[in-house]
Amino acid sequence: MKAGATVRSVASGAATAASAQPVGPAAGPVGVALLGSTGSIGTSALRVLDRQRHRFVPVALTAHSNLAALAEQVVRWAPACESYGAGLYAGLVAPQVASQEALPPAWGTGADCLVEAATHPDAAIVINAVVGAAGLPATLAALEAGKRVALANKETLVMAGGLVTEAARRHGGELVPVDSEHSAILQCLAGHDVSEVRRLILTASGGPFRTWSSEAIAGATVSDALRHPTWSMGSKITVDSATLANKALEVIEAHHLFGVPYDRIDVVVHPQSIVHSFVEFVDGSVLAQMGVPSMELPILYALTWPERAPDTGVPSFDPVAVGGLTFEAVRHEDFPMLQLGITAGRRGGAAPAVYNAANEVAVAHFLDERLPFAGIAACVSAVVDALGAMPGDTLDALLTADAAARDAAHDAARDYVDYVKGRVGS
Ligand code: NDP
Ligand code: MG
User: Fold this and answer.
1) DSSP state letter for 358
2) Are 337 and 377 in contact (CB under 8 A)?
3) Which end of the chain has a smaller Cβ tally under 10 Å, C or N?
4) Does the N-terminal peptide bond of residue 306 adopt cis geometry, omega within 30 degrees of 0?
5) Are 161 and 182 contacting, i.e. CB atoms less than 8 angstroms apart?
6) Residue 265 pairs with which residues in a beta bridge?
7) Which of 99, 130, 153, 182 best tests ligand 1's pocket when mutated (most atoms within 8 Å of CB)?
8) Whole-angstrom Cα distance, residue 185 to residue 279?
9) From ligand 2's centre to the CA of 152, what distance in Å?
10) Please, which residues have CB within 8 angstroms of residue 198's CB and are 6 or more apart in sequence?
């Protein structure tokens, strides 16, 4: 039996670990399409694939505009792909005009190259490591083609969780999380039906401003926000971790992946990032998955789930060196993006897509130093208030809401800056 979608197996208990197709040496190397290969998750994934060459081979790589890094990856991986009997597909979404002529003719360009890579006939698994809503069409296309999607691109599920899980269910695709918290939950759930779950508890590092005063947080700079205490990641998710928007996205992601209602998903701050999340079962037992912070384990697990493969990527765990593990309540008043996002998730329809799109725009303004840190939540809140009731029952409706929210967020960011200037001037 082909493996059911992880979402289904967790939500309904219909599939079990034994139902998954074998991957690994017995079946020969499995072709992998890696979307976002030049990013933080993308380069971690290539390190995993390098160690696991006997199990997996990349057959497609995509980047947004980093031609130099993508070209280097193609040179490095083309021989492995050729010995597998295929040619390595490369796609660059937005090549610079000047560089376009220099691209090899076989390379794909434009947004369609994500879907081309995601539906590559030699790829059984698609790692979606693109940042932002741009990853959604590729996730849907891969699931509709019946592939396994190892999903880092959480924005996909936040925007269109219902459509994505439905696509997996209808076409026999699998959705397996790469996000460390969701990988931890999947590992804790192994063999258990979701009806046995009382509560999911997602851990959050608390980000760089965990101990800062409200006044200091309001004045945080870009370099302050990019100084994450425990994880090294792309700039968008690092800012999301500083506002705790990332944890809101993850609560929504967990809701869709595991089919657990929002009132049974909690968040706790855990500064050491050793416990990657907890599952509390109906009998009161609590399981946690632990390890030193490294995305290479959840990436590998998403490829081999429900099996485990020997790997040396993660250093051996030394509890004594870790020292104490501590847990704190979230300071909601200083990190309003968390509750704002969870409320949008509970509201459903287009509200989570609106929250996500507004956040992407506000974070981009902040990274360009055109919006202060406190302006991110102000801007997103204004957009969700204005557009959160838009319909979100079809892909077209969600894309319309996403576009409207982006326009509104640009306006809200400008209004916020004018308002702050006005207050300073008066
Ligand atoms: P990065 O910014 O480091 O990398 C993003 C990748 O996507 C790059 O390859 C980039 O190409 C490409 N990209 C950017 N914009 C587009 C676009 N519009 N269309 C197509 N491709 C695009 O991000 P991360 O690797 O940190 O994060 C990727 C995803 O994984 C995010 O959704 C994040 O939330 C999630 N995630 C990340 C974790 C981490 O540890 N980094 C942990 C858990 C989840 P180029 O290099 O050319 O710009
Ligand atoms: Mg995470």
Assistant:
1) H
2) yes
3) C
4) yes
5) no
6) 200
7) 130
8) 6
9) 9
10) 264, 280, 281, 282, 284
Query: Using a 6 Å cutoff on CB, does residue 118 contact ligand 1?
Result: no
Cα–Cα dist 414/291, whole Å: 43
Judged by its nearest atom, the ligand closest to the C-alpha of residue 180 is 2
Burial zone of 161 (CB within 10 Å; 0-12 exposed, 13-18 middle, 19+ buried): buried
Q: Cα separation of 367 and 133, whole Å?
A: 18
Domain annotation for the chain: domains and CATH numbers = 6-178 (3.40.50.720), 185-293+301-425 (1.10.1740.10)
Ligand found nearest the CA of 247: 2
Quote the strand ranges of 42-130, DSSP E.
56-63, 89-92, 108-109, 125-128
* C-beta separation of 33 from 60 below 8 A: yes
pLDDT (0 to 100) of residue 327: 98
- Asked whether the whole model's pTM tops 0.85, one would answer yes
* CB of residue 131 inside a 6 A radius of ligand 1: yes
- Dig out the tokens for 128 from the structure: 């979606």
User: Which parts of 120-209 fold into alpha helices (H)?
Assistant: 136-144, 155-171, 180-189
Strand order in the sheet with 148-151: 108-109, 89-92, 56-63, 30-35, 125-128, 148-151, 174-177
What count of other Cβ atoms lies within 10 Å of the Cβ of residue 331?
Answer: 17
* Cα atoms in the 13 Å half-sphere on the side-chain side of 360: 21
> At 245, which helix (H) or strand (E)?
helix 245-258
Taking the chain (426 residues) in consecutive chunks of 10 residues, what is each chunk's mean pLDDT? 38 32 61 98 98 97 96 95 92 84 84 97 98 97 98 97 97 98 97 95 97 96 94 95 98 98 98 97 98 96 97 92 96 98 98 98 98 97 98 97 98 95 78
Q: Angle at which helices 351-367 and 336-347 pack, to 10 degrees?
A: 150
**C-beta separation of 201 from 345 below 8 A:** no
